[in-house]
Amino acid sequence: xxxxxxxDGIIPVIVxxxxxxxxxxxxxxxxxxxxxxxxxxxxILDMNHVEFLDSSGLGAILSCxxxxxxxxxxxxxxxxxxxxxxVVRISRMHxxxxxxxxxxxxxxxxxHALPE
Length: 116
Description:
Layout: E1 3-6, E2 13-16, E3 20-21, H1 26-39, E4 42-46, E5 52-53, H2 55-70, E6 74-78, H3 82-90, E7 98-100, H4 103-113
Parallel strand pairs: 2-4, 3-5, 4-6, 6-7
Antiparallel strand pairs: 1-2
């Protein structure tokens, strides 16, 4: 699983570099993301490079979202291609995931969720 982490801001951004998130790499994705969520319960998942997503990939993202939620955190998604967005819509997962067009919008959504 090819990804990097942008820690320049308040919320870490996990940038997926793989074109596919599917049955071939979904388990690897979960294994690599789990330790990141253990130390950063609030993250943004940048999917700009992902062109193909199947049910295994969706399940892996959902698993990570649940893991973040267990520690009081959350995971926001950004940068979905039209192909990926269609899969998310067809599976009705757009009701589960918080999806944004930009990193800035996702960060603002975290800020609005913070207690005053």
